[in-house]
Amino acid sequence: xxxxxxxxxxxxxxxxxxxxxRMVGSGPPLLLIHGIGDSSATWLDVxxxxxxxxxxxxxxLLGHGESAKPRADxxxxxxxxxxxxxxxxxxxxxxTVVGHSLGGGIAMQFxxxxxxxxxxxxxxxxxxxGPEVHPLLRIAAAPGAELGLSVAASVPxxxxxxxxxxxxxxxxxxxxxxxxxxxxxxxxxxxxxxARQAFLRTLRAGxxxxxxxxxxxxxxxxxxxxxxxxxxxxxxxxxxxxxxxIAHEAMPGSRLEVFDRSxxxxxxxxxxxxxxxxxxxxxxxxPAPYDPVGWRRMxxxxxxxxxxxxxxxxxxxxxxx
Length: 321
Description:
12 helices, two-stranded antiparallel ribbon, 321 residues, alpha/beta
């Protein structure tokens, strides 16, 4: 049974902006990075159990949750730098990075920009694998979407959405499937103008009307020595399951776990299994050593030194799912 311990929000001023984060537990550090439009609260179902053996750090990204929402740089690389700076302020040198959705893209960028500070990588329904993304996100990335998002976040429209929620859920939940309820809750956070602006700046840094514009596939060979776990929900409607298999194939030695009952949020849909899988991965792998000579060699050669074996834990893969 998961512990019922809810870590409170803390704040630190970094570069003149308030950064909110949760930090609890002791032991080897885990950095949990949430997705777009979300916050550190997304991890509350799994933080208590993970904190039994680890120091868990779960920030609200700039522009999200309780963190500041300035007119600033919301690119993936800037977020990765923000994670490095927060860890430095907290006197944490190396971490295992767990990233969900947008947070998965940030986690991969962190591992790429700061290989000396990343011990392992856990990607949960991660962005950055292929162009496909939920159509509503492509619409929101289009020019002129500010007005539409403002209307959609208004009190009357939000009230109408609450009333219509049962019908929408029964008819597919606007193509969000099992994630509709959680997405609807997050949508309410966009009512303040500065929150909507931060959301759109973040979205447009990685998505346009044609889909995702950022890929991690061109640098996956650099993860050859980095223990990597890929977790995906079979019912994910934001990023399709095939992205999980593409990432698994592209990342030498990675381990893939498919959660059959989950959508885009496996840590919500199956929290006990999520914790079990992550803990097992941590137990079975050693932190990646940083080898600057090997890193430079891989960059020059454009390939990994020694491709490792990979593991797929998906009971349906043999059937072509």
